[in-house]
C-alpha cells in the first residue's frame, strides 16, 4: 500500500477509493502494537467470518472498518506482514490470511535517535 501525500490533499479526492477515509497514522507502526492493530482491523473487515456488526459492534458504531486507512513511521523498514510474524500475536492461520494485505505496507522513514528506542527492540 502506498500512502497518499496527505499534505497535498484538498479533502475532496478519494484515498484508496474511499470518499470519507479515516486516516490513522502511528508512530512505531512496524512494531508489535502497530502491526497488531492494523492486522486486527484488516481481519475484522476482510478475513473474519460473520458480518462486521457481529464481529466488532462497538467499533463499527464509531467508524466503519472499511473506511480506515493506516500509515505511520518506524525505525524499521520491515513490512507489516513480517512485523506481524515477529510479534507472534496472531495464530499462524490468521497470519497466512493477513499476509497478502500487509506485505505491501511499509512504514515511512524515521528520524533515528537511539536515546528514544527501547533497549529490547533489536
Automatic annotation (TrEMBL):
Domain of life: Eukaryota
Biological processes annotated in GO: inositol biosynthetic process; phospholipid biosynthetic process
InterPro entries to which the protein is assigned, alphabetical: Myo-inos-1-P_Synthase, NAD(P)-bd_dom_sf
A single MF term (Gene Ontology): inositol-3-phosphate synthase activity
Entry-linked Pfam families: NAD_binding_5
The name this protein goes by in its record: Inositol-3-phosphate synthase
Annotated organism of origin: Hibiscus syriacus (Rose of Sharon)
Amino acid at each position: 500500500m502506498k500512502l497518499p501525500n496527505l499534505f497535498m490533499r484538498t479533502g475532496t479526492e478519494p484515498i484508496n477509493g474511499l470518499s470519507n477515509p479515516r486516516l490513522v497514522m502511528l508512530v512505531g507502526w512496524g512494531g508489535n502494537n502497530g502491526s497488531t492493530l492494523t492486522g486486527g482491523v484488516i481481519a475484522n473487515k476482510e478475513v473474519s467470518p460473520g458480518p462486521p456488526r457481529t464481529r466488532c459492534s462497538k467499533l463499527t458504531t464509531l467508524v466503519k472498518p472499511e473506511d480506515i486507512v493506516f500509515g505511520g513511521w518506524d525505525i524499521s523498514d520491515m513490512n507489516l506482514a513480517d512485523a506481524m510474524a515477529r510479534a507472534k500475536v496472531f495464530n499462524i492461520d490468521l497470519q497466512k490470511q493477513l499476509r497478502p494485505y500487509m506485505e505491501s505496507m511499509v512504514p515511512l522513514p524515521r528520524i533515528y535517535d537511539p536515546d528514544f528506542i527501547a533497549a529490547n527492540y533489536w
